Amino acid sequence: MTSTEPHECPLHGAGVDPDRLAGRRVQQVVAAWHRRDSEDADGPVGIWLLDDLGGYFHVTTGSDWCLILDDAAPHAGFDLADSGRVEVVSSERGTPFACHVREAILAVDQRFEARTGRVGLEIRFSTGSVRCGSWGGDLHLSG
After folding, report:
1. Which residues, at least 6 apart from 121, have a Cβ–Cβ distance to it below 8 Å?
2. How far apart are CA 43 and CA 128, in angstroms?
3. Structurally, how many domains does the chain consist of?
């Protein structure tokens, strides 16, 4: 059962407070994509929003299926040998954030699971919102 009452992830802690994003403008979107051979990735495994103050807001999932939020800058991609590679690239296109670049964030709503901690976010803009969620350990983004 999910709720809006905060529950801290036992493995990853509370993370960054997403309310600090309210009023900031998204300047760039960077995403980490897991690719195998020539297959297109289903969706990013991590996303970074660069705001107008030069800060990063990173969203990814934890091994316990929580939604991790931190302020780390994007890292370099890396090789996973037989399992493919992770590419980290500017991704204004290909994510639901594409149509919100250069827009201010109005508010961020969160969803929590008692045993796991944060499992969902809704980032609201004047022209719509983007939902970020952890489902089965995978990051899911929808507009």
Report:
1. 18, 59, 67, 69, 108, 109, 110, 111, 131, 132, 133
2. 20
3. 1
pTM of the model: 0.90
Residue type, 106: L
Structure tokens at 110: 């969160």
Looking at residue 136, its pLDDT comes to 83
**Both structure tokens of 43:** 């969706």
Question: Sheet holding 85-90: strands in order across?
Answer: 67-70, 56-61, 44-51, 26-35, 85-90, 78-79
Contact 60, 47 (CB under 8 A): yes
Q: Residue with structure tokens 């827009």?
A: 103
Q: Bridge-partner residues for 67, per DSSP?
A: 61
List the domain range (segments joined by +) for residue 80.
2-142
Average pLDDT for runs of 10 along the chain of length 143? 75 91 96 83 89 95 92 93 90 86 96 91 97 92 94
20 Ramachandran zone, left/alpha/beta (phi>0; psi -120 to 50): alpha
